[in-house]
Amino acid sequence: MKVLKAKDYQELSRKAANVIAAQVIMKPNCVLGLATGSSPIGTYKQLIERYEMGDLDFSGVSTINLDEYKGLTRDNDQSYYYFMYNNLFKHVNIDLARTNIPDGTEPDSDKECARYNKVIADMGGIDLQLLGLGHNGHIGFNEPADDFATLTHCVDLQESTIEANKRFFASIDDVPRQAYTMGIQTIMQARKVLMVVSGADKADILDKVINGPVTPQVPASILQMHPDVTIVADEAALAKCNL
Ligand code: F6R
Question: Is 70 in the pocket of ligand 1 (CB under 6 A)?
Fold first, then answer.
């Protein structure tokens, strides 16, 4: 694992955007795996700035997102589609037809997961997968479990995740209880992985991810086995890592 240290969120976002920009420049028709949440917002802002300066062209890029809440429509302001559209897609010259997010309105989980797995396979896999890190070590919505989940599946969200995400909803009762998520195997098959981690509240879990045993109880720990992972983290998040 390569760890890039940043002094703060701003620097972290710039460094992460550098890695993504390099990918887009070197392979203009690349497949980017994208994440939502607070961690990548600064990275997306940096990418938008670079696009506006004329340094980045997204016209050939395809995207595939990690996850989506089950039951939310695209126009729900808490859906991950809404997040991606407003934090990145509408600001750059990406072809929306080439952006992919699980369909939260599909009630048939087997059908939606099979569809999404086929989308990923038809794209030829993921060139660069961007990840955030959950407080319990989750990546996408792959929660701590007895086994590493493989392909796209429907998950019951853990109480800690519902608790962490309630800040975005009117009340905790409004937080969806299930989500569709890309599986760990698909994430591990991405040719490169970039994880962005910020803040003192992630210091304990980041230490486990980097230095702890590889265990499905800390899903992101499996990244230790991936041949090309870059973690960009700020000093607060790295405080317990002894690097
Ligand atoms: C969202 C996702 C999640 C988040 C994680 C961290 O697409 O995949 O795994 O990356 O919950 O969220 P933040 O960045 O809000 O701390």
Answer: no
pTM assigned to the model? 0.96
β-bridge pairing 99-100 and 62-65: parallel
Q: Is 138 in the pocket of ligand 1 (CB under 6 A)?
A: yes
- Tell me the pLDDT of the chain (243 aa) as tens digits: 999 999 999 999 999 999 999 999 999 999 999 999 999 999 999 999 999 999 999 999 999 999 999 999 999 999 999 999 999 999 999 999 999 999 999 999 999 999 999 999 999 999 999 999 999 999 999 999 999 988 999 999 888 889 888 888 899 998 999 999 999 999 999 999 999 999 999 999 999 999 999 999 999 999 999 999 999 999 999 999 988
**Is 143 marked active-site?**
yes
What residue spans define the domains of the chain?
2-234
DSSP structure string for 7-52 = SSHHHHHHHHHHHHHHHHHH-TT-EEEE--SSTTHHHHHHHHHHHH
What dotted CATH number matches 2-234?
A: 3.40.50.1360
